[in-house]
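Example record for the data management plan.
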Amino acid sequence: MKASEKLVSAAAGAALACLAAAGSLGAFLTGFDLPLDGFPRMAAIWALIALCSAAAFSFSGGGWLVSGALALGAGYLWRQGQLQEQLLRLLEIVSRVYDNVYHWGFLDFGVPQTGSVDLPVMVTGALLVLAGTWTVCRGETSAFILGYSLMPLLPCFVITDTVPAWQSLYTLFLADILFLLTGRVRRENVRQGNLLTALAALPVALALGGLFLAMPESTYVNQAEPLRQHILSWFQSVPRDTPQMDFSQLMDSAGKKESVDLTALKGWHPSTAPKMDVFADLGGTLYLRGQDYDIYDGLGWTASPKRVETFRFDGVDLGKVTLKTRETCEILYLPYYPQGGLSLIGGKIDNSRLAKVCTYPRMGLPGDWQARSAPPASGQEAYLSLPPETRQQCLELLKNRNLQGTTGEIARTVGDFVRESAVYDRDTGPMPREETDFALWFLRESDRGYCVHFATAAVVLLRAAGVPARYVTGYMVTAPAQEQVTVTGENAHAWAEYYDPGLDAWLILEATPASGLPDPIQEPELQPETAPSDTEAVTEPSAAATTGPEATTMETTVPGTAPPPEDAAPKTGLLSALKGILLLALALGALEGQRRLRIFLGRGPRGGNNAQALACWRETELLCKIQRKRPPKDLEALANKAKFSQHTLTPEELEAFFRFLREEKQALEEKPWYLRLIYRYVFAVP
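Corresponding structural encoding:
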């Protein structure tokens, strides 16, 4: 290989390797939002490594030189100690992201969560750069560099929240497609490979740019959600049923219950035993969500075990909330609303790793939430289901109420009606045996009840009014800012959640009279340095105002399963499109490789004289077409003779083809380079 060809090959290898490293590691970093001190500086280091390694790999013995330098660098970094710490931090951050979605636990190495992860990322990128330059400069197969460059991207494919930046994806796919298209040609002829790389770079870049422009983010579709739901359902524990007598027993065994037998409820006398300790950065009322139930049959509630929903909302920052249970619970209790994504399976989160301390960054409603409106929700039909007789009688009860307006206004109307229908009393008796519907009995016959009664009636009436709703159990407590408060059985509570299409979120409807709430509802005590502006007003407003001597205005409407706003919508549709394009490119590359291999194996002394003559004739036609010549008449006659007659060509007749091909190939060397490139590519000529 000429020195000039080595220089060009080294430059091409360095450029492709840097593109692959920057795209691959950039996608990983932006997908997991990893902390870095300086990506541009890191990219400059990769460029320097690429140039040095490309120069070394261009000469014999350069591989040993690079290996020695790599060993010395790795040893130095390891002795410094920072590489180990940052590597453990990186693994712990990634495992926590997965734990937020799948709840299978995370790696806890005890290293600080603050700080960068520059060193492990830089080392990974350096190895990727070395692999890229080795592939180009030594004419190796592209399979290794393609697989290695995609490895950092693989962890992002199964979590919809890990969305790499489009710039990184663009750079990665540009490098990989160029590796794929030029790899085999480069191995057969370095000079032609370099030319093909230069010629293909601009068309590939423009084609990828056109793809990104043709698929704007507003058209992306989250296609990974079914996969995530399947994975989460697979990890779901087997539902268990145990008898149920009163609300205290329900809360004490929360997580074991997928059903609530309303007919067996009796008077409620909660225990004062401590359940957990709560510490909140901002004080106020906390609803600690445990289990929700979606199926109502008139006599009880049941939780569908296969439901998978995202419990997420991005709004006003309310600081952190830490929950520390006194004993291990089988479910995790969640404040409204944990920042980031948490997935509910069957209406709850199983505490499979038996955690006793959990900290959640908490978010509240945006200031304009009451002004948002949307058409009735679609896809929430399961939360409208009622026995036909129950629905008819509930509508009869509500016939004199105004059920027009927004979803929030309808919810407030229902909340007012439920609170006016009965008084709060923990000593209420069980539902008579002859009754067939708990909510109707409470609203029509009974004049007293506690939170279970009011919440059940509110959910049933909401559904009858066309508002998706569900029944939720958990705890309600008022937590002073920066002070630890103990939650006891007295704080056990049940409430309704209804779906508001304007927010695309589940909101709390507090239907229990104020006199029966575990703690008075209080808004968060916003600190001056964290207080939102006038347009971002406070969080956790609730629904509905009570009437009567102890009435207090409450607006407890908090989003629960809302996806992120439009500007932060999951972009896995882009990932799916790019994955499809890459797979198609890989498949086409494999087919092209097989085609060229068959052509290569088809040349030479294979088959009889007639078969060899026909193979030579096909090559003769191509050479003449490239040079704009007519094939010789005598060779055409020999080809027809070999194809259509029973005569076997003599060695002298076959030699005429070989002699012509040798002469034309020599003549082709004097022609423009692109004609030689076409010939070499079509006929797999090395």
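Summary line stored alongside the record: Residues 423 and 448 are 5 Å apart (CA to CA).
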